[in-house]
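Hi L.,

You mentioned the student needs an example of a multi-chain input paired with its predicted structure. This one should do, with 826 residues in total across all chains.
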Amino acid sequence: MPLVALSELIGAPVRDAAGVAAGRVREVAVAPQDHPTRVAYLVVRTASGERLLPGEALTACGPTVRAATRADTWERYALSDGVLLLKRDLLDQQIIDVHGRKVVRVNDVEFESAPTNSHVTLDVVSVDVGARGAVRRLVQGVVPAFTARALLARIPPRVIPWSYVDLLETDPARRVKLKIAYQGLSQLHPADIADIVEDLPPAEREAVFETIDEEVAAEALEEIDPDIQVSIVESLDSNRAADIVEEMDPDAAADLLGDLPQDRTGQILQEMQPEERQEVSQLLEFGERTAAGRMTTEFVSVAEGGTVDDAIAAIRQFEGSREAVATVYLLGAGQRLAGAVPLVQIAVSPAGTHLSSISETPATCPADTPDKEVAALFDKYNLITLAVVDAHDRLAGIITADDVITMLRHRH
Amino acid sequence: MLLQRRWKSRLLLLAAVIGPGFITASVDNDAGGIFTYSLAGAQYGYSLLWTMVPIMVALIVVQEMAARMGAVTGKGLSDLIREEFGLRVTVLMMAALVVTNFGNIVAEFAGVASSLELFGISRYLVVPVAAAAVWLLVVKGTYSSVEKIFLSASAFYVCYIVAGLLAKPDWAAAATATVSRPDTAGIHNYGYLFMVIGLVGTTIAPWMQFYLQASVVEKGVTPRQYRLGKWDVIIGCVFANVVAWFIIVACAATLFASGNHQIRDAADAAQALRPLAGEYAYLLFAAGLFNASLFAASILPISTSYVVCEGLGLESGLDKRFDEAPAFYWLYTLLIVAGAGVLLIPRFPLIHIMVLSQVVNGIVLPFVLVFMLVLTNDRELMGEHTNSRAFNIVAWITVVVMIALTLAMLVTQR
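Structure written out for the whole complex:
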């Protein structure tokens, strides 16, 4: 299966059925709605303007392109939004390399040409992001073809298979037509998505966050540098921003909204579901650098008289973060904090055991405890979670160890 | 009370965006720039001060375009040139920039060496230490820490203003010369014309636009913040020109007035000031030169690395670690080692490097300026932030005059 490079194809002479030199290739188009990789048509610059040479009419693709039809039967070319023009949209542009988890620039595109029935089909197989593609384009037409081939053979290729490429497109309508959904990107770990997004220009960041699943977007957003978080959320419309913020951990959401301009925070809160809105607005009222500003209001709690089975049931129903499950809190009358049971204790105790019999005195702190003291408590008692209580000893929320690590790393 | 608070918050906002524009404009007064200004003052007294205003306008116009592009697109200048004009153009431009910037880097290290040689310190000690310090700063620093150090270095240019005050110039004559119409008799004077070309030529260099745009991007200035960010550029350019004005005035009031019209380099100017303007003026001139050269010697290699890595799509940026952006840091290291290294080779033909560097600089500049104008007028790229018609008129005049003068400088140097 011979490989053809986009840079070889662009400018290649085209001969039609009559063997007449009809013109030169100017663009190569893929229509993702019809076929994800197949070349739909070539745009050929002829003496009578730009013409469409359909993929089905190709009989040879290489230094010379041959067609099975006569040039005068080719349609006149008109720009269409629904096709990917490989030279304009891909060559020299940035893409996301999903496999290598980074943003790269395209040096060349490679096709595979395969004989099918009476014609050849041309499929995009990979993009070249290494030195080979760059050198090929630089020496093209400057040094003889055989010298170029000998030179290129010495350079190790760096190509990304087409299935690992996520295109960047900032126009939402065009994104839909081209079926760009950042599926590859969405499969990555949120922290990797965050790293990639931080490397993108602002408009492209916005494009990614407009498109990917809300839950994935929320998790990735939490991992992004706070300044960039703010600029992304500011660029999204309130509705979409609210959808994403709802899926975030309430403490991270509150931190983010606290950094936004006040009217913007208001708009986003308006659009949120009442339940999430209440949680986040409560957290927003506390100072950001205190226990209350760091805590999450999603924790596992069971009534004081409950058993191990009740605790397991509560964990099963719990929708908050995995870190918060490390401790099950026991609540007495009026939500008063009565005890804490580590997950390990629950795991090793027989079913039916009363939680009060394996409960420990919980480590607690008041809502206005500054960051520094929170960190000191974690260090001193080797905590995984810390309960934040209000003036009446009621459990307001918990801080988990991962929050403390983030807090310590961000302190300059 | 309310008004006061509003001013305070504005100042805070301004402090958040100030940096790239201010730094870039300040570095413009590097070893070569200081020498040119000193020579202009020593040979022609106050009579070339009129050039300062048009030069400032030209500088603001060009820098503003680069900063605006960075804020709006979030991409560096060589990124944009690659996307719009293709790989071949980009690679040719990159190669040319590496050559011209390398010449400049050598000149900056020469400035570092000559400024400390005034105090009798050997260049075989100074140059390696300076190179190591510059290298460590950038390799170990992050964008914000490096920016703080660079901003302090920019502020240090104040010492030229103080030196100007110590020279006790004739303020009225200097002020009049700045705003009055240039003397037409000068046009027939070959040396005078050559000096004008030199002054303009030293002001706008291709590397500045690449550095400015890349650092606006790395700082993360958004289009909304840019309304204030524009002032970063304007204030920076005004400050840089005020410094240049004071250098000319200081040399005019002393060297020109006493008939000492010949100086060989910027360190020579400091030396010549000593008997005329006093010990302090001499020290300030020497310290200013050291600061300016060291400052430029660290920024030029960064700018070059940005250009090359962006153009080739390699990782770049001060916030990345060495292993995250190896090409960026290796190129940076190589430029510093080679740039400082050639100064330590006895009888190295430095002058050939300088001439080559200036010729290539003159060839690249027109292309860069025209690319910038094309890009800032591209609606698809800039959206509502394209150039206004009035701005375009000023910008095109600036570009055409700049190109004509740079070409004239190349021709006259033969």
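You could point out the following to them. The CA atoms of residues 23 and 151 of chain B lie 6 Å apart. The interface with chain A takes residues 73-75, 82-83, 86-88, 91, 217, 220, 222, 224, 312-313, 315 of chain B (CB under 8 Å).

Best wishes,
N.
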